[in-house]
Amino acid sequence: MHMTLTQILFGVLSFIAILGGILMIFSKSPIHSVLYLIITFFAIAGHYILLNAQFLAVVHIIVYAGAIMVLFLFVIMMLNLNKETETHKPAWIQITAVIIGGLMMVTLVGALKGASMLAENNKVDATIGLTKRLGMVLFNDFLVPFELSSILFLAAMVGAVMLAKKNIH
Amino acid sequence: MSAIEIIPINWYVTLSAILFGMGVLGVLFRRNAIIILMCVELMLNAVNLLLVAFSAQHNDPNAQVFVFFIMAVAAAEVAVGLAILMMIFRNSKTTDIDFLNRLKH
Prior knowledge:
The complex is a heterodimer. Helix content of chain A is 75%, strand content 0%. Chain A is built from six helices and no strands. In chain A, α1 (2-26) runs antiparallel to α2. Chain A is globular, with a radius of gyration of 21 Å. In chain A, 24% of the residues are buried. By secondary structure, chain B is mostly helical. Chain B has a single domain, classed as Helix Hairpins. Chain B contains three helices and no strands. In chain B, α1 (9-29) runs antiparallel to α2 (33-58). The longest helix of chain B has 31 residues, at 62-92. The mean pLDDT of chain B is 88. At the A-B interface, α1, α2, α3, α4 and α5 of A face α1, α2 and α3 of B.
């Protein structure tokens, strides 16, 4: 009974994620694209919870749905782009894009489907995604990259402000 | 209790490949630069999902720290990318990438 429940959850979350992605690509209005992408992100956060990555699920929702997509919405609002006036690529380019994207999908799935990816089947550790465990790893093994990412953020902040400023004296 | 004990890893690989392919399709299909940036986000998320699945399979928290760093870099990338887009829009009144072909001529 439990087994089927997990598999049903996997199927439903995958369906929502893929459907949100398809609607994001093919919807006319940019605002609708952003909202569909947020649905996809929530489905992926559900996958993280299923995989016992609770900390990452929360961070994913906060960072993606809470920060990045709001940034997208603000830019669309400030540029006043919510019109369906986007000119489309010529039909042959669109058909070529669909063929190339589909071929890439089929190739990836086909190449990876038969591969055996068996881990040594040791006992699954449920505490792996908790904040305490990840914090120990982050601040012991990855302390230098963590500090470097703060410098990256500072540079990105300065760069974004400088690029978006109207007049640079 | 983890989903990785019940669901084969190949399903996660397939799902990630489909999501990544959809991101590639969106980048090739659309002309609006904002949508293209969103499709890049979708591709990054496909990779993140695969890393988390392998992390659960191998009992290794390092992969989850990688996902954490990918999220940080993605946030910085979006901030700078959207600032560049605003600058482009201010100069040329469009976010259509086919308009920005001056390097070609």
